[in-house]
Write a structure and sequence with these properties.
about 500 residues, alpha/beta, Rossmann fold, Dihydrodipicolinate Reductase, domain 2, 6-stranded parallel beta sheet, 15 helices, 18 strands
Length: about 500
Amino acid sequence: MLTTTIPYAASSRTPAMSPEFADSARSPVPPFDLVLFGATGDLAARKLFPALLQRQIEGVLPDGSTIVGVGRSEMDDDAFRAQLAERIGDGRDRAALDAFLRMVRYVALDVERPETFAALVPHLTDTARVRAFYLSVAPAHYAATCGALATHGLVTPAARIVVEKPIGHDLASAVSIMDAVGRVFTEAQTYRIDHYLGKETVQNLLVLRFANTIFERLWSNADVDHVQITVAEEVGLEARAGYYEKAGALRDMVQNHLLQLLCLFAMEPPNTLDADAVRDEKVRILKALRPIPEGEVLQRTVRGQYRPGVVGGRAVKGYAEELGRESAIETFAALRVEIDTWRWAGVPIFLRTGKRMSGRFSEIVVTFRPVPHSIFAGLGADGALAPNRLVIRLQPDDGVQLVTMAKIPGSGRLRLRETGLDLRFGEAFENRSPDAYERLLTDVLRGQQTLFMRRDEVEAAWRFIDPIARGWADRYPVPHRYTAGTNGPAQAVGLIEREGRSWLEQPGG
């Protein structure tokens, strides 16, 4: 397929920008105390501290702010800073790294022993400044941690709590956890983080839809044939066996990432970019999802688990081999869903996600209806005209591609082929694209909640997922196997192709 890259042309006028999307200069971060529980863990080393370091290098984090790492290991500030420098300092300017490390403190405590939280008190003395607690710990510890913070008088009016997904493993457990957190922190103080919402392209969905008449007018069942949302991973189990055996792809990915992408894609235009205006519309989509009853899981869903194969040119083990025993947990999930609204009634939406697939890619593919009457019958590839498609790529090479039909140059017989108008954000904009956690952490400190899930969002998502999980347990207990390095089991192909449609695969997928 021929691809044309469209350069970005700066407008002569800069539109007014909501504070939700303003840059750091126009929406400054106030002085803060950030307490990071789980500071010696993998997420902190891979994502959280590197994001904070980058924000500090860019001058976003104000002088005098403090980052307090919390963990069980006994060590002093200098030992923790040395450990942190080794884990995040590779390739960094040493002066910039040292300036960041001077912001960092360390406190050893045990989240299962509330009395140990007394060690935090001397580090949090300014009750007027922003105080954020990031819980990079298992959700089972959320209630005890929040209770201990309250007991030691650490929860101020300016305090905020950040909790990771997935919250619970079903609706009942999610409500229990959120009730426990809510007894200490108000809804306005609670930030339920899903890092997918911090991705630049995900945020650009709002701009693509609501700032461009050409797309918004086509965004309905009048012109859209079907939609595909894919989040594919190359990685396998890695070091997440304990967690993944309890969650699986349905709870780990569909309940949050994919449903959040679906909401942003399908929501009605909010009146403003105010946090609750946006989240109100997302909740409406979740409530409008047609339920998948337990008795329909075999017709509308697919479970899969990868077996040995080849990924990226290297042989990899199957899930059971990595785990060390047989398992019935799914590493792949595909769903056919519908949204019962005026805009989307009758449009099938296909969701899929999996580990050890052919590549790492996330995308939303909108396939439009064919023209009512074609005067070019037989002139396209294989004699057919390909449908117009809008491909919104989230990773890698984030951008937007519009696939249309065009004439093949030449004076001979008229022939048509697909061409793509391709906007790659990395090429179109000089600005560095920030990591999702860079955006989300600074939004917490600024008090901006648009990109965080509200409680009723979480509950609505679980209400949709729970019947599927029960149906799988009763009627679909054994997932189909697929070879690592492919795009899921054959049944996932059948899920979409029995309706005369096909998955849009990445080249080589």
